[in-house]
Input
Amino acid sequence: MERNYDVLIVGCGIIGAAVAFELSKYDLKVGVLEKGNDVSLGTTKANSAIIHAGYDPESGSLMAKLNVRGSELAAEICEKLDVPYKRNGAMVVAFNEDEEQTLKGLLTRGTVNGVKGLRILTGDEARMREKNLSKDVVAALFAPTSAIVSPWEYCLALAETAIRNGVELHLNTEVKNIEREDERWKVTTGEGEFFAPHIVNAAGVDAIAIHDMVAEPKYVSKPRRGEYFLLDKSEGSRTEHTVFQCPNEDGKGVLVTPTVHGNLLVGPNSSEVAWEDTANTTEGLNFVREKARKSIDSIMFNKSIRNFAGVRATTNHHDFIIEEAAPGFIDCAGICSPGLSAAPAIAEYVAGLMEKSGLSLERKENFIFERKRIRFNELSDEEKAELVKEKPAYGRVICRCETVTEGEIMACFDEPIPPVSIDGIKRRVGTGMGRCQGGFCGPRISELFVEDRGFDVKDVLQDRAGSEMFTGKTKEGR
Ligand SMILES: Cc1cc2nc3c(=O)[nH]c(=O)nc-3n(C[C@H](O)[C@H](O)[C@H](O)COP(=O)(O)OP(=O)(O)OC[C@H]3O[C@@H](n4cnc5c(N)ncnc54)[C@H](O)[C@@H]3O)c2cc1C
Output
């Protein structure tokens, strides 16, 4: 039987998820085609996790407009969908007179962009708010509306809510070709054919390649990698605000920020790569460490618990590329920073473009806009006791670093996108996020997959397809 949709979305990072969420408010049949075995496996899971205030993008650009609107929307969405989010404010610090001029330029630009509450602080005023800031800081732009978020939980929450509202998600479904057939698009994937008159290309770093399947090449992909240190929670209060340095031609520079999970995040650098290469390099990490110490010299890098890298979907066009590339085919390409911040506003903008290209948008009556998670660690002692009495699995702690219980892990299997890997569980409930990085809970979660979910031990994955953990049982077949 033919699989027909009103709209097909290619990719389920934050942009595909936000578009799915937005379109699920309307009476439409929407399908999402994602090549990974989970959502949020691309750049969305590896970035600075900042909901930027919006002073950085060039005034009048799509980035500026959608960043400011997206940051307003994010606060409400994260509250309603129970996504970890904190408006901690940001500072851009200056070390000399030239950089002070840059701050003044950012203040003017931010004000034109509609960012609220921006002001310039002296070095001493900045240090009053952020005690570990370097004594060499001479001034800072203060942006109170900047926030931190859990990017993968944001993506999951949007995708899960879209599914609760009727969207169909097809995982492990890589788009291989798209062609025009009778006033509609035929999408050929590794899992067969799909049809729709409207397509949204939200394929991240691959978006230019997807565009080239349906239209003349127009833009050139120039991906840039950013590398990070994630430090233990003992370093998590080294800063309260997100501390940026002055932006340069390579982007927003190296930042130091707390995360919503209580760690300290330091990075990124910016180096050109040929493809979505997320390897870490000695050179990149040394650069990050040296730059970050300029802002806060007391950071204890020996408390680093993980390094990672994400790849920006940069192109030769210095703005988001959100436009109709062919009839009913909307590109969301070049969605580098501030894409995470702008995501819900990008989704609104895409819906508007689709309406102009003939998609009928009729509001649904019973749109579900809520989601709730149990986070055992955040409950009071009385609530914990009550819960354990009712459901004993909440009394069995699986991840000791983060105090995550078997009950929380089991609950995520009942959500609309059940996890299929150890890292899939990590993204949902935070196991393996602490100092031991899964050394203790990893084997116990593997056991849960085998004993409770009926997986063959050889099929237990660390993350993506191909990341099998075990070759078999020891002593078997002797
Ligand atoms: C170092 C770095 C720091 C950043 N910091 C910030 C920040 O602090 N704040 C901010 O606002 N933004 C930030 N960004 C930008 C932000 O992370 C991105 O804009 C955002 O994550 C892009 O989301 P996406 O959905 O477009 O792409 P992705 O998350 O990469 O998702 C694309 C999806 O498409 C899928 N896909 C690809 N090809 C196919 C295919 N052929 N068939 C099916 N599926 C396919 C992929 O598997 C993937 O899941 C940063 C980016 C980087 C790299």
